[in-house]
Amino acid sequence: MQQRDHHWSRRATAAALCLMAACTWEPPSVGEIEAVYVPPAEDVQILSLGRAQTFGGLLYDVMDANDQAGLLLAFQEFADPRRLRERTEVTFRYLPGSDELRGVDVAVSRDQTVRLDRDEVLGGWLSRVIETPVYVDTVYASGEIEGEGGLWESVVQNPVLVQVPYEDRNSLIDHLDRVFQWQLDFSRQLRVGDTYRFAFEQEVRPDGSMRAGRLLAAEYVNSGTPFHAIYFDPNGDGQGSYFDLEGESVRRAFLLKPLAYRRISGTFQNARFHPVLNRVRAHRGVDYAADIGTEVMATSDGVVIHRGPKGSFGNTIEIRHSNGWVTRYAHLNGFRAGIYEGSVVRQSEVIGYVGMTGLVTGPHLHYEMLANGRQFDPLSVDLPAGDPVPADDSQRWEAEMGGRMALLETIPRAGPVRTYTAQSQLGQTESGQTGSGQTGSGQAESGQPGGGPQP
Ligand SMILES: [Zn+2]
User: Please, how many CA atoms are within 13 Å of residue 193, restricted to the half-sphere of its CB?
Assistant: First the structure.
């Protein structure tokens, strides 16, 4: 049960995982802080609540009944001792080299620790809540498209990102796809030798867990042409969007493709269907292989003018847009509930699901873009749509864009890749001070709920 060096062994595990993945794992940076040797302020012992064990039961081995009652009383100001989950971490803090218990930390949730300090003046215990500090780092990654696996493989296997949870790496690809969806069809246009660089926010917790957050800046160089998407929030309400280096919105009247890149399977594109439009005149459309049921999006705002079977197209939706454009989505498995002829749809709205109805050999989406009955390759159509950065915000835009691009420029376009962490913020706050509010032990006040010596 005793895990006095618990937090050290966890670090060792992270390092070991790192060796296996042949990466250069480094603990999350908290900025440019010089290493200073500080002797441990306290000895710590970390226990975790066993199955069916009560908090009182765990305390029983460590302190006498009187002391325990006082501690529970203080603890109850912030949490219910009967509601602690199994494996809740309880850290006992001692005067170095002695058995004198000075404090107890109870990690009541992922975000909160109840810290109990012995009241040296009045006796008894003082309690308060410590919010788990979350560092928001900016992580930079770069890479190159090397083969068939495309962007997905390059990002998922990027050594910089192995520390990011797998699901988050997948969502980073979705983020990239979403900011470039008007400029680039990753499923059709990617070329070996293309490079990318991007920066995103990453939340790091003291236990080492991380979460990928917002994409801040991205560059994709496609066949030698660079595309940029820089996040900017004109109103400061968290509802920002993406702009190119000139401050023009990356949004266009049409998405280049009606499916999320990550949902499109590779086999079809490399087969005879790709690139369909230029090679097989009789075909007139773009085919995307994807699993049955994959969501199909309207590529632009418009009105549904056909919803139902249509000969060899099978289940088909047709949408009329402004300026005479019509888009067609064929071989659908089904239509989204509420989508009928006459329905008004918005860009990116789900209208139906990939299927294999009509004259097909496998599940895929057949997509067409027509004007005056004539077929156009979506890649050849470029209709501006989004508003540029408002003139009033141009100074702030220039500063933010310049800063983000300057950081992006510090990394090579393609390997050797490294993580750059910058702009760290310590999110620690304390609340619920009771009693005298004395912290008891200065140096241990590191914000790390596990207590103990700092690296
Ligand atoms: Zn087709």
Answer: 4
